[in-house]
Amino acid sequence: MSQAGEQAVIAIEGLRYVYNPQSSHPIQALDGIDLDIDAGDYVVIIGHNGSGKSTLAKHLNALLRPTDGTVRIKGIDTRERSRVLEVRSTVGMVFQVPDNQIVATVVEEDVAFGPENLGVPEEELQMRVDWALDLVGMDEHRQRSPQGLSAGQKQRVAIAGVVAMRPDVLVLDEATAMLDPIGRREVLSAVRALNRQGVTVVAITHFMDEAVEGRKVVVMDGGHIVMDGSPAQVFARLEELRRLQLDVPQVTELAHEIHKRDPSFPPVLLTVDELAGEVERRARQARSEAAPFPAGTTPEAPPQVADEPAAPSPPAGPLLIAVHDLHYTYLRGTPLHATALRGVSLEILRGEAVGIIGRAGSGKSTLVQHFNGLLRPREPGKVMVDGQDLGRPGVDVRQVRQKIGLAFQYPEQQLFERLVGDDIAFGPKKMGMPQAERRERVRWAMEVVGLDFEAFKDRFTFSLSGGEMRKAALAGVLALQPQALILDESTSGLDPRSRRDLLDRLLALHRDAGLTLILISPSMEDVAGLVDRIYVLDEGRVVMSGTTREVFGRADELRHYGLDVPQVTAVAHELARRGLPVGQVPLTVAEGSREVWRILSS
Asked: How far apart are CA 563 and CA 312, in angstroms?
C-alpha cells in the first residue's frame, strides 16, 4: 500500500463483496475497490442505483465485512470482530431512512442515546445534545415524539444523534435526500463546519450540486471506481457521466450549453455565483466597448426579474380533488399532539400536473394522505374525490384508492412479496385480473419505471438496491393504472438519470393518457420540469399558489418559507440583482441558455 494509504484514516484495498454467495442468484456488489481517505478530507461518492455506493458505505463501520480484500479504519481491520466497537466509535453513519436508526420516544433522548452509550459524562452529554439539535435546526422540537415528525425532520434528528457522538469520520448515505432545499443547505453548512473542525466526511448523494461541496468526487459503476478527481475535473466529463446515468449540477449544464454557442465561455462552472459573475463580466466588457456601463452596478433595491405574462390556465375540466378548510392534528387530545393542517383549501382538475412544496413538517404528506382516504377529514373540513365525499360514512374507500395511487416517501416499505414480479402483480391480482393480462400489466408497469421485465421479475425484493426498490414499489402502484398518481418524494432515492427518465415517462403518461400527477419533491428542478401549477405549504397552511413560473418568480418569498428555486432560475434572479436585463423567468436549462445568450448578445 502507498505511503498515503498508510496515513489514511480509511484505507480500502482490493475490496470485493458478494450478496447471497451461496444462493442461485449471487450478486457481485463490489469488485476490486481501492480507496484511501485521509483524515480531515471531504469525499463525495456518486453513482447510479445499484452501483455499490451504499454497500461500500456499510463497510466503513463494519456493518458489512469484505468477501475479499481489506478495509482498515485508523489501522483497524474491520474483520476483527473484537474491535467493532472501536470502528463504530470512529465512524458515525447516517442512513438513507432515518426510521432505521431512531430508537427513543422523545427527540432529545434519541440524540442522547449514542453518546450516553459511549459513557459521556452527564454534564457533557447535555451540552452535546443541545449543540447537535441546534446544529440541525431541531431544538424547538426536542420534546416531541420522533414518530410525529416529518421524514425530513426525522432525518435531522438522525444526523444530530450521530454528530453528538463526535465521530472522527461522518458517513452520510443520501442523508439529505428527504430535506427541503433550505434544510439541505443548513445541514451541508453544518457538515462543512464539522469538516473544518477536522471531521472526515464521506457523503453519498444523488444531488449533483451537493457533490460540488467535496474536495474529491468518486464515481462508481458496477461495483468499481471508474472516475475520481476534484468536482471541476469530474463534472468536466459531462458525456461520460451521462453514459453512467449521472448528470452535472444544473449550473454546469447551463455553462456547457453556453459554451456550445461561444467556445470562449468556460464550460465548467459549479455555482450560481460563478456563472452569474462570468455572465456579468462579459456583459460589462461588451457594453464598455460600445458605451460606458451605467453607474450603480449593485443597486440598493435590486430590480425584479421581469416575468412573462401569466401562463394560460389549464384547460377547463371536471374537478378530481377538492379540499376545503381541512384541519388535522396528530395524537389529538394527548400531551404529544401536533397540528399538521390548519384550514387547507385547494382544487386539482382531472389531467393536471400539480406540485405541492414546503419545508419539512409543513403538512404536505398529511395533506395528500387525505386524497385517497388513508386519513379521513374531520369537521369542518371536506375532501371530495371524483364527486365522493371522503368524510361521509360508508364511502367506498377501496374504489377511491384504485383511482388515486399514492407512492410514499419510502416506497420500498410498500414491498412485501418475495419476488419483484409477484409484488408488482399483487394489486391487479386482488382486482381479479386474469393471469395473462396481469403479466402484461406488470411488464408495462416495469417498463414505465425503467426496470427490465426479464431481468427483474424473478429477483428477490430484498436483493434490490434502494433505488431499484423504489422503482419496483412505484411499478406496483402504476400496475393498477390509477386516474391520478401522487409521488410523495418517491423519486428522491433515484440517481439523476433514472429520476429524469422516470419523470419523463410519467410526463408522457400525463400528456398522452391524461394521468393526473401530484408531485411532492425536495428537488425544485424536478418540480419545474413536471408541473403546471404549484401550491406552497407552510405550517399547515397554503401560503402561495400559482403557475410554476409565477411561483418560482417569487424567489425571496420562497426562501422565507424554507424553499428555493431551480438553479437555472436562481441564475436569472442573481443576474437581475446585478443589474442585467433579465426577461422571462427560466425554468429549464434550455430556457436559461436562451436567456443568458440574449443578455450576452444584446
From this structure: 25
User: Are the C-beta atoms of residues 118 and 329 closer than 8 Å to each other?
Assistant: no
User: Can you tell me the distance from the alpha carbon of 62 to that of 73, in angstroms, rounded to the nearest whole number?
Assistant: 9
Per-residue pLDDT tens digits for 149-189? 877 788 889 989 999 999 999 999 988 877 778 778 877 88
181, 130 contact by CB (below 8 A): no
Question: What pLDDT score does 290 carry?
Answer: 64
Structural contact between residues 592 and 568, judged by C-beta atoms closer than 8 angstroms: yes
Q: Which residue has the cell 445534545?
A: 129
Beta bridge partners of 547: 533
Cα(73)–Cα(180) distance, integer angstroms = 33
pTM: predicted TM-score of the whole model, two decimal places: 0.82
Degrees, nearest 5: CA angle 542-545-547: 160
DSSP assignment of 279-329: HHHHHHHHHHHHSPPPS-SS-SSPPPPPPPSPPPPPPP--EEEEEEEEEEE
The pLDDT value recorded for residue 152 is 75
- Closest-CA residue to 220 (of 341, 41, 335, 56): 56
Q: Which of 14-18, 26-30, 223-227, 493-497 has the lowest mean pLDDT?
A: 493-497
Instruction: Please report, as a single letter, which amino acid is at residue 218.
Output: V
User: Shortest CA distance to 517 belongs to which of 563, 469, 478?
Assistant: 478
**Which residue segments constitute the domains of the chain, with CATH numbers given?**
3-243 (3.40.50.300), 250-307+568-601 (no CATH), 352-361+394-552 (3.40.50.300)
